[in-house]
Amino acid sequence: MQNKRRKSEEKDIPVVMIESSSEEEEAEKDDNYVGDSDEDSCDHSMEKMKKRKRKVGSDKTIGGNGKMESKMCHQCQRNDKGRVVCCSKCKAKRYCVPCMTRWYPGMPEEAFLKACPVCRHNCNCIACLRLDGLAKHLMNVEMKFSDEEKLEYSKHILRALLPALEQFNTEQMIEKEIECHIKGLPDSEVNIRKAKYEKDERIYCNYCSASIVDLHRSCSSCSYELCLTCCKELRNGNLQADASEVKVQYIDYGPGYLHGKHCSITPANNGTCTETTEFKLRDQIKVAVTSKWKPKENGAIPCPPKDMGGCSKGTLNLRCIFSENWISQLLLKAKEIAQKCKLKEMHNDSELHCSCPKYKGVNDTSGGKLRKAAARENSDDNYVFCPAVGDAQLANLKHFQYHLFKGEPIIVTNVLDSALGLSWEPMVMWRACRQSKKTTDVLNCLNWCELEMNIHQFFKGYMEGRFDSYGWPQLLKLNDWPPSGLFDERLPRHGAEFSCCLPFKEYTHPQYGYLNLALRLPDNCLKPDLGPKAYIAYGFPTELGRGDSVTKLHYVVSDTVNVLMHTQAMVPTVEQLSAIENLKQNHKAQDQREFVTGANRMPRRIKDSVPNVNGKSDLEGLNFSQDKQNCDSLKVENSNKAENMKYRQQGLKVENSNKGENKKNSQRVVKADCGTNKIGEKYQYREDSSLFGQNLSERFEEEDGGGALWDVFRRQDVPKLEEYLTKHFREFRHIYGSPLPQVVHPIHDKTFYLSTEHKRRLKEEYGIEPWTFVQKLGEAVFIPAGCPHQIRNLKSCINVAVDFVSPENVNECIRLTEEFRKLPRNHDAREDKLEVKKIILHAVSQALDHLEKTTFRTTEGHIAAGSSSSSDKQKYK
């Protein structure tokens, strides 16, 4: 039996490869591209550059003063491109006219003469991009906090986390009392042994996959481990965690289906395995579990049977990870200091306030501090806080904390003004990236399948746009590039630039954010991957309905900030628009056929609806069916016969079915957070109009700098949102463009994107609507934990995001973690990757240590709470 203790791991899945063309190879030569064979050789890029300098003629000329002057361009390392401009500041660097025009389009010659890009610290030649010196300097510029700031921040952390600490302690004390009853001993005589584990291991509950932080039960004969929540539920006969595996089947019908053609196979909605049947079977599994695995009368829990992962021989004994009474002592210490500080509870805190006019009954948006994003009746939260970098209000951290605590999105404008001006052009990033692999996996937003593609070819499509053979826009996404956890390593200069431009660095700085609780984990502890992560995707100005470049409705388990670093407009021709409209009519007819015959009902309004179309993707089409023989175990399968190809659906594991016709190329289903069934209405926002149901003008598309359309839902609206999606799920499409067969969790599945029409109907039926706004170039969007959101790209966009754990929203992180437990065992969202409870314990410990050292050092020494390792505190001294 395999223990649930495990480290982070990567899953390699073969994909189809699109070879690079001679055009890309020539581009590499022209840019003096250094093709490093491995990452270690990247550090020697300067030496390689010197070896590869092309000296067509002499690189020296006689100047007016009679001295020899070099004509070598610093950017391209050539001397045969004509006139060069020499920097008057350093008097050493020169740039030729072609390089100035190509790589610095927004910088006039006069600026080069005054101070060259090297002097400005934003040179994007390949040698400078890969130099470690400046990047390391920028990344290691430690944020300085005054003693007063540290004191106030520590108080803020303590008062925010004290309720959660009390809850943890209560759960543990209850389990200790049960242990005393099991052993028939008083509390003072019960000895709880420490569990053996490695510092860089994450310990998970074998039944619900939740992270184990301290007290838990472990089998005396095998390695089975059970969290306290499962222990409580098992004794109550009401296990909430889902032990079933839910799988969904999608069959590829070919590219014709994507473009609205008829399919001869019976639609999946006529299958026998319905969403209702599926959930009944999952409930039956829970009943079966509790019937054969029961606690003893005294509360002791035996190890579960072998078919449930246990050994059925031993007994689950109580074990601890920290010292036995560490949390209890920590709580006593926290309460004492909180009383001395006279700390108020967070929800009654009068210090957190808002000076926005909307809360004073004045709809005054002068000065750009607010941006209207909703049209709810009798609501005071239709506007979102929207300060600019350098604004006086931006320095008011309490104002920011108020909106974050209330669960409202925040938009900070002009954040790139605080950066050094390094180019985020895709070709610059491509040349800067320290990796030998020239291909990457990209997601086709039409069929939600991945294909392996040359990076240069992808970026070329980003700049110029791509259309398939049917004339439909081919919208591709490159998520988390460079790979997760390697952004600062592969793109050190860009990583440093991103950190420099982040607003509210007390929360967002990846290394030194004092109020980012995730940074309080010890150095020897396995930390969650919070970024930064880059998301590069094509965009289209109008809502297509199928194949749109979208991030589907989802949660982020923590708070997050997303910065739009670059945009590129794609302007279709009249002929292309005409072809798109013709295909939309095919999509509309297909929706009418399938939604009527499959679901026996038609959506009340499918205005200008546009189903799915495949760009000239190598995957041929869509198919949808269900396994009538196995209603209790629906499977996600690929109909492609290509051997050794595996497919993954977002949120669920995928298996091969080897059905359908042979395909010329193979693709794989991936974690897809783009595309959906949308309505092709052009969307706009006006102060004096409702956001839904009207054919508004195209202001969103024409707005200068607008790159991404966001919809963020309020926390209190989530139950109604989930109810709407569960009710209408058959009207949405997913992998291969197939209608959704069932819903496991409307948000955690990441299979829904609400189009303009669906948002209109959501408001009409349930009276709720999201905050809807356009993110412009250089804007940072803050999304609090617990707020479902979706995004559609209006242009090709490069977004960089970083997650953080704020004291204000730890309760939402805990709530989401509890939701993960109830997902099926094979659901991708089930794993507790954040480990927020562990973060809370270490954050409280460090805050108390600081408060005790600075203001409340006592001479009695009667409270001796355990503390984190000394490495916990090094960053903040």
TrEMBL record:
* GO MF annotation: an example: histone H3K9 demethylase activity
Q: Which PROSITE patterns match?
A: JMJC, ZF_RING_2
According to the entry, every stretch annotated as the RING-type domain falls at: 73-120
Annotated Gene Ontology cellular component terms: nucleus
List the residue ranges forming a coiled coil, or say none.
none
Key word Zinc present: yes
Quick check: keyword Amino-acid biosynthesis in the entry? no
**Mind telling me which InterPro entries this protein's record contains?**
JmjC_dom, LSDs-like, Znf-4CXXC_R1, Znf_RING
What Pfam family is a match for this entry? JmjC
- UniProt entry keywords in alphabetical sequence: Metal-binding, Nucleus, Transcription, Transcription regulation, Zinc, Zinc-finger
Q: What sequence ranges are listed for the domain JmjC?
A: 510-821
Q: Where in the cell is it found?
A: Nucleus
Region annotation Disordered: residue ranges?
1-63
- Show the SMART domains listed in the entry: JmjC
Family, per entry: Belongs to the JARID1 histone demethylase family.
Name this polypeptide is given: Lysine-specific demethylase JMJ25 isoform X3
Gene responsible for this protein: LOC107760914
